[in-house]
Give the backbone structure.
Amino acid sequence: MRGELSLGMPQPAGMAAVEWRVSDKPVTYEDALAVMEVRAEAIAKGDAPELVWLIEHPPLYTAGTSANPADVLDARFPVHESGRGGQMTYHGPGQRVGYVMIDLRRRGPDLRRFVATLEEWIIRTLATFNVRGERREDRIGVWVKRPDKGDGFEDKIAALGIRVKKWVTLHGIAINVDPDLSHFDGIVPCGVSVKRYGVTSLVDLGIPAAMTDVDVALRAAFEELFGATQNVGSTENSSPGTRALKSASEPAR
C-alpha cells in the first residue's frame, strides 16, 4: 500500500539545492513539455540542477498513456497527448501545476517511493490550510471527504502523474486552488465516473487561499521531503527541439 511506503527523498551530500521557479503568466502545454524535455536531458547529463517549476496553464485537457478517448465528453478545450502515465485530466487558470524534475539516480531509483512522496507533498500542503487530504488505494489522486454532500461522498482536490527518462522525472502535481470546476465536466477525470466522487478546490471548500499562499505552503512541504531549494528567475516558455528517449511513466493520481 502506498501509505505504508517510506516517505521523503532527501538530497545526498554535496548535491545542489533544487531550483525553484514560478511563472506569473500562463504557459502553453507545448512550451511546458519542451522546457521539461530539455531540462530533464540536461539534468541526466549533469549539466543542470534539479528543478521545480510552478505554473498555470490556459484551459486544456491532457491525455495520459492509458487515456480512453471516450472519456472526452465535450472537447470544449484543446486535448493534448501528455506522455505521462494515467488517463484524462484538466489544467487551467486557478490550478497550481508543479512540474518536478528530480534525479532519481542520485536520490534513489524507487518510483513507488517517489510517487508516495509526491502525494505526501500535496497532503502536507493542504494541511497548511486545515484541509485533510487522503490517499485512496482504489482511486487515483488526493481526496477530501464531503459528508456535506452525503454518506460516502468524496471529492478529488489534487492529481499527480509522472514520466521518467534516464531516472529523471518529468510532469508532477496539480492542486485545485480556484479553477472553474465546470471545466472538469468535459471529461471523465482520471477515469473516475462514480457519482459520489467529484472534484473540488480550496475555494470550493470555503478556503479563500491566494495562489501565492499555496506556493509558500508548497515550498515548505517540499523542503521537508526533498531538501533545500533556491530561487531562480521565471523559466522561458520556449526551448529548442527535443529527441525521443526511452521512458517509464506513472499514472495521473
About this structure: Confidence is low (pLDDT under 50) at residues 235-253. The radius of gyration is 17 Å. The helical segments are 29-45, 104-107, 111-127, 211-226.
